[in-house]
Design brief:
single chain, 229 residues, alpha/beta, Rossmann fold, 7-stranded mixed sheet, 13 strands
Length: 229
């Protein structure tokens, strides 16, 4: 049984725990290092999930509780990491903020104006630039169906093809991705053929701008578990 840590400083960690347990994994709540050494005892885990929440608060708490460097070291050494919404922001190398935010995916352009770099703590394991809260306020949250490469297109004789329902809540926007980042899914945007990146992977680091834990669809969590050696 895989043993997966779930960062439990704040945010939607309980929903991730339930999803992991339904997938047959053991979920371990992480609020502080589990031991000493450069990995903080986290190297006894098979993977780690960074849930949604408020990324600046989570970054400060990661720093205060001395978890930021151990998690980064685990990721650099090949541990599978999965960040959703705020967790995706923490994974990204470059974080931007803007005084003017789009209110929906359709209004989110390729690079909104008045961007400025954020100095918030981050893991920096995903070669991507992300804009915080790009899709507006809590009341501007939305849902849509996504095709996720390697997930919704997986052939299974027992079940028909179906897209993944994605819940976006004050979602971040990936402005650009490095050459080693694989875009797995795109949310509808102005350009229906391309849209905005919504799920990405770089090696064994997986990120999603939406909340898969808020639906009954376990396929993205199962995909994450498949990254374990």
């Amino acid at each position: 049984m895989p043993r997966i840590g779930v960062l439990a400083l704040q945010g939607a960690f309980r929903e991730h725990v339930r999803a992991l347990e339904r997938c047959g994994a053991e979920a371990v709540l992480i609020r502080k290092p589990l031991g000493g050494g450069p990995h903080g005892g986290l190297d006894g885990l098979d993977g780690l999930i960074l849930p949604g929440g408020e990324s600046t608060s989570m970054g400060r708490l990661l720093t205060d509780w001395r978890l930021l460097d151990p998690i980064r070291r685990c990721g650099l050494d090949g541990m599978p990491l999965f960040g959703t919404c705020a967790g995706l922001i923490l994974l990204c190398r470059r974080i931007m903020t803007s005084a003017v935010q789009a209110s929906s995916a359709e209004e989110a352009g390729p690079r909104p104006p008045e961007l400025r770099p954020s100095d918030q703590p981050r893991l920096g394991l995903l070669d991507a630039t992300v804009l915080r809260n790009a899709f507006g306020r809590q009341t501007d949250s939305f849902e849509c169906d996504l095709e996720v490469r390697g997930v919704t297109d997986a052939r299974r004789e027992s079940s028909p093809h179906r897209p993944m329902r994605a819940v976006f809540i004050r979602a971040p926007l990936l402005l650009d991705c490095g050459p080693d980042v694989d875009i797995l899914a795109r949310a509808p945007g102005r350009d229906e053929e391309s849209g905005q990146p919504a799920a990405v992977r770089q090696g064994r680091v997986l990120g999603a701008s939406f909340h898969p834990e808020l639906t009954d669809d376990l396929r993205l969590h199962a995909y994450f578990l498949s990254l374990i050696r």
